[in-house]
């Protein structure tokens, strides 16, 4: 039983030593993540800046002729049609 305890203690110490050496070798994960994020932001800024330069300015033209907006009479006709449909639906329900 004591041998098992000693072996487990050794494994724990060896595990900690391996973790420490990997951290020293690879560096801190947070620093690496921040560096990667900063590099990605830099590249995206370069790409979007060149693409945004290609985009034309806002169009200020007016709508072409022949486009008509719905009038009040159209709305009244639609309201009448809706009322008729609702009446037929109510009759079907009864």
TrEMBL record:
<dbReference type="Pfam" id="PF03357">
    <property type="entry name" value="Snf7"/>
</dbReference>
<protein>
    <submittedName>
        <fullName>Charged multivesicular body protein 3</fullName>
    </submittedName>
</protein>
<dbReference type="InterPro" id="IPR005024">
    <property type="entry name" value="Snf7_fam"/>
</dbReference>
<feature type="region of interest" description="Disordered">
    <location>
        <begin position="61"/>
        <end position="82"/>
    </location>
</feature>
<dbReference type="GO" id="GO:0007034">
    <property type="term" value="P:vacuolar transport"/>
</dbReference>
<comment type="similarity">
    <text>Belongs to the SNF7 family.</text>
</comment>
